[in-house]
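Fold this sequence, please.
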Amino acid sequence: MTIQKFITYTPLDITGKVLDSSHELKLNVLENSGNYLIHRDILRHYASQKQGTLSTKTRSEVRGGGRKPWRQKGTGRARAGSNRSPLWKGGGVIFGPKPQIVNLKLNKKERRLALQTLLYNKKNNLLIIENLENEITTPKTKIFLKICQNCKINLTQKLLIIVSKKTIPLKLATQNIKNVELISASNLNTLSLLKAKQIIITPSAINDIKEIYCE
């Protein structure tokens, strides 16, 4: 059963000061079977990341083996028709992997519902920072670390930063930090949300989430 839930948030600035304005994010959330839907979406995400190029050669594909190694009878040895039999060293592989494409289908509405349910479940780990992508104008890691210190963010845990658009200074400022993942709102997925212990979102990214996933 789908029910509507609201997340009320008050943004901070980069100095850690609480701003006066407060906003609401309306989400459609699955009450009972949400975990099942999230699990299916994560399986779909993992399957889509597989290249599917693993391959082995069968006895017909291995080079050689055209001549019968020895005559059928009279030698005292076991009969053999090819030296590329799977029983022989250098022979083919029985039932080995072949290139394949694995597609796990999940409807668009189900994907959106799984994402909104997980976002609501992570509501206590959300932190809204006003205009983060535009405040960092120089690609310096120490600037971002200073912002994290001001906002009391623990960088020993997995941190997910959701922005409306990745800027080059912000991308370069965060790429050398071990537990930080930067993602745009249009590429948001359940796997990144599930792994994150802390989530930073900008108000512009929240507007994008409303337009893309909540309509």
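The radius of gyration is 27 Å. The domain at 2-50+106-214 is CATH 3.40.1370.10 (Ribosomal Protein L4; Chain: A;).
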